[in-house]
Amino acid sequence: MSEPLKTSGRKTDTVVGTLLVAFVVSLVCSSLVASAAVVLKPRQVANAILDMRRNILEVAGLLDPARDVDELFQGIEPRVVDLETGAYLDDIDPETFDPAEAAKDLEQSVEVPAEIDVARVGRRAKHALVYLVRRDGEVSKIILPVSGYGLWSTMVGFLALEADGNTVADITFYSHGETPGLGDFIAKPAWRGLWRGKRAFDESGKLKLQVVKGRVSADDPLADYHVDGVSGATLTGNGVTKMMQYWLSDHGYGPYLRNIQGGEGT
Ligand SMILES: Cc1cc2nc3c(=O)[nH]c(=O)nc-3n(C[C@H](O)[C@H](O)[C@H](O)COP(=O)(O)O)c2cc1C
After folding, report:
1. Can you list the residues of the chain whose pLDDT is less than 50?
2. Best probe residue, ligand 1, of 182, 212, 228, 230 (max atoms within 8 Å of C-beta)
């Protein structure tokens, strides 16, 4: 058996020495991790804002890879809407209003009644942040944040409507946890393309927009309101339908969209 290594006649592999080294190493490492988190936080926030802006530009049909996202975003007009009345709230700055934070604050949020919470939203902010696109000064598109539960996850995205507050211009999902190859069809360009030109409400104002099981048949009298589902992933499609049912209802953007349809959207 070999003798423990000795330096200057002192034994170095004592329990106290080992614990001291472990303590110093963990102190140094945790300080490094904590400093990195603090230093990188502003960059993470900036990247999240940039990503959100890119998604909004994309659903608005204004994303141009050759141009700067922040510069293009100057063409988008964020507005705060009171979801109960559907009116714009010009005394709240859209640059600083954060609906996700507001949804956590009891004063600034409401619970979605269980009987209408088909999208499993839970609580939502009393006010919403919507985005307007203008052409020649007139509103040409309205972009609405939407979210709801699919099969496995909360799916979060934007629904873009034309100026009539009824015709779908585009839809995008930038966050979801549905299965790759099954439920992730919601984020595929080909499926998004099926939404363009569909209508949300019929002539009497009744919400008809929905994802159907399988393909929309050629003789479907509601084909203008129906979007193809994906076989084997019907439950995710049902989640998107429920999301529309909630967010386009009277408890969601209904009052706002009625204002838009009545010509009060500017
Ligand atoms: C591992 C696994 C993952 C699945 N992921 C999804 C999914 O992301 N979205 C979905 O709608 N169905 C998913 N399904 C299938 C559903 O359980 C269900 O069978 C399907 O949505 C029913 O659609 P269909 O009636 O068109 O067959 C998954 C099934 C398995 C076994």
Report:
1. 1
2. 182
